[in-house]
């Protein structure tokens, strides 16, 4: 069994849901309290034991690469001003992990973005994390998936239960229970099923652990709606070929690519902040309507 050492993070999207804020700033660089969204994603893979991150980028995304690079001028200024804590924090960020960038020259979908990483990944299993899906958990979500992989030696998609009237917004998994906790064997995957066409509430979120055979499946996948190569089609092919599991992770997921999800992430993370938490809690109490005040 090969070790999971690499993670792919597609960051080539335009971030249209956050325009005009993302006209000149990558959506992955929007700040949640004191760090950009992408840093939370990278910190999760680092805490999970991953050794290398592959960013799938596009034009205008250099700010992401720069964020994880060393800035000599800034470091010099901070040193001269004796801002040692900030220097240490920036040094920690630039030293988090080795980062490789691969350019996606055309916006041909998530499946195509992952396929672009094939030469860097080679014949190893690897993780995929979407850059606007945050998961807060005691054990990192990716670590939970790696632990399961070491038992099943197959691809895994992370899932969460959603209300049935929301299943049309997600890729949905249908499957059978297994002997592994919170795990089902995938039988069918449906991308945004029409109401009434699936009785499953297991929605795929932005975490995948994939065997390298996914690249062959992606290479054979014909473009779908909008000329994009859909990842779900290739996942179904891989599940049919050698099997796949769906894991209901432990933790709380935020869709930071959605305005409301982004705000929820800011509030929850800020409430746990060592210096901001209490003042923010007091402020929220002062502006509540008297019915839903924080306790």
Task: Describe the fold and architecture.
This protein is α/β, with parallel strands linked by helices. The protein folds into two domains: 6-255, Spore Coat Polysaccharide Biosynthesis Protein SpsA, Chain A (Alpha-Beta Complex); 258-295, no CATH class. Helix content is 35%, strand content 24%. The chain is built from eleven helices and 13 strands. The protein has helices spanning 37-47, 62-67, 72-80, 84-94, 110-115, 118-121, 141-152, 214-220, 231-242, 259-271, 277-287; strands at 6-10, 31-32, 35-36, 52-57, 98-103, 126-129, 133-136, 155-161, 171-177, 183-191, 202-210, 244-248, 252-255. The strands form three sheets. It has a five-stranded mixed β-barrel with strand order 8-11-9-10-12. Strand 2 (31-32) and strand 3 form a beta hairpin. The mean pLDDT is 90. InterPro entries: GalU_uridylyltTrfase_bac/arc, NTP_transferase_dom, Nucleotide-diphossugar_trans. Pfam families: NTP_transferase (PF00483).
